[in-house]
C-alpha cells in the first residue's frame, strides 16, 4: 500500500464516520457534530477558555470563538469573567449543556458501536493514539 493510498483510506474513513455520527447527533440531540465536539471540550476541560477549544479541536481561535458564540447563544455554554485575566473569559456548560453533552455522548458511543466491531476499536484505538502522539511531537 502506498502512503497516498493510506492517506486516502484514513480521510475517507473519517468522512464516513463523521457523516454517520453527525446524522445521529443531529437526530438525537438537535446539534451538528462540530458544536458537540466544542461542547465536549468545554464540558471536560476545567478551566476552559476559547484557546483550549481551539487547541483541542486543532482549529483556529477565530473558529473556536464562533463555535463558542453559537453554544452561548443556544444556552449550552456560559462565559464567566476570568479571575486573573481581563482579556479572556472562562467557559462552562449550563445545565442544558450538560444534558446535551450527556445525550450526545450516548448517541456517539451507540452509533460508533453500531458501525465498528470490538476488534476494530481495539486495533484502531491503539494505532491512532500512538500515531497522534508521534505527530504531536513534530
Please characterize this protein's 3D structure.
- The chain is mainly alpha-helical.
- The chain has one domain (3-136): Orthogonal Bundle (Arc Repressor Mutant, subunit A), CATH 1.10.10.
- The chain contains 6 helices and 2 strands, in the order ααααββαα.
- The chain has a two-stranded antiparallel sheet with strand order 1-2.
- A hairpin with a 7-residue loop joins strand 1 (77-81) and strand 2 (89-93).
- The longest helix is centred in the N-terminal third of the chain and has 27 residues, at 3-29.
- The two termini are 24 Å apart.
Q: How is the topology of this model organized?
A:
Layout: H1 3-29, H2 33-44, H3 50-57, H4 61-73, E1 77-81, E2 89-93, H5 95-115, H6 118-136
Helix pairs in contact: 1-5, 2-3, 2-4, 2-5, 3-4
Question: What keywords describe this structure?
Answer:
138 residues; mainly alpha; Arc Repressor Mutant, subunit A; two-stranded antiparallel ribbon; 6 helices; 72% helix
CATH topology: Arc Repressor Mutant, subunit A
Q: Helix count, per DSSP?
A: 6
* Helix and strand element order: HHHHEEHH
Beta strand %: 5-15%
CATH superfamily heading:
Winged helix-like DNA-binding domain superfamily/Winged helix DNA-binding domain
Q: Tell me the CATH architecture.
A: Orthogonal Bundle
- What is the total domain count? 1
> Gap between N and C termini, in Å?
24 Å
Side-by-side strand order of the widest sheet: 1-2
Question: Roughly how much helix do the residues carry, as a percent range?
Answer: over 70%
Poorly predicted ranges: none
Count the strands?
2
Q: Which structural category do the helix and sheet elements fall into?
A: mainly alpha
